[in-house]
Design a protein that fits this description.
Distance between the termini: 17 Å
Structural class: alpha/beta
Number of strands: 8
Number of helices: 8
Largest sheet: 4 strands, mixed
Order of helices and strands: HEEHEHHEEHHEEHEH
Strand content: 15-25%
Number of domains: 2
Length: 209
């Protein structure tokens, strides 16, 4: 992965470079799944957290839970969740938009004063396409896409995951990038494309070690 590839993964469709990682321990909660799937999501979270060298927590002091993952059948169900309109602004118009384009997933981030991620809400409408995806693959994909503020264009052409034998894993270059992104020497948020060069340097250093 070259600096230009890294830059592209954090450059929005409008051309703006925006990088952010979590600035606090992740306190997750999952709604709408059975215990078996819950364990799969938990395992994916623990794996990516260990990779990043980040932390998980039982609760977040400000929000209680700061990573909320919702599984459901129809977007309209979100309108019935108590307090959801306070967590996600303009929820009504958002639900209409997502329904109109037949979307099956959406992620909404909130940020602290420094620009670091302080909360992420993951919405998964389990249509035929998502129901056909193995739970391990779906969980790992969603955790990876929630661990950094990737571009809205990222992973459209190529998944962050790969298959090794019968196991689904992170592509090595994506794993290396996540590890580099959480280097404590680097800032938790950046708006200049030169940050891609710093990430690249950390990735190269990690490969040399």
């Amino acid at each position: 992965m070259e600096p230009a590839d890294i830059e592209a993964l954090f450059t929005r469709g409008g051309g703006q470079f925006v990088f952010a990682r979590w600035g606090r321990p992740i306190a997750p909660v999952v709604f709408g799944v059975q215990e078996e799937t819950l364990e799969v999501v938990k395992g994916a979270l623990e794996a990516v957290t260990a990779l990043a060298g980040h932390k998980m927590a039982e609760t977040d002091m400000e929000l209680g839970s700061n990573l909320m993952v919702f599984f459901f059948s129809e977007w309209a169900e979100l309108l019935e969740v108590p307090g959801m309109d306070q967590l996600v602004p303009d929820l009504g118009p958002l639900v209409e938009k997502l329904s109109a384009v037949d979307a099956n997933q959406y992620r909404f981030f909130r940020f602290d004063e420094a620009g670091a991620i302080k909360a992420c809400f993951v919405f998964l409408r389990m249509d035929a396409q998502l129901n056909a995806v193995p739970a391990q693959t779906l969980a790992l994909s969603q955790v990876v896409q929630s661990y950094l503020l990737w571009s809205d264009e990222a992973f459209k052409e190529q998944s962050p995951l790969a298959v090794a034998g019968e196991t689904v894993i992170l592509r090595p270059e994506v794993a290396g990038l996540i590890r580099a992104a959480y280097d404590p020497v680097l800032p938790a948020a950046a708006g200049d494309a030169s940050h891609a060069l710093r990430l690249y340097a950390r990735m190269v250093a990690g490969e040399v070690q």
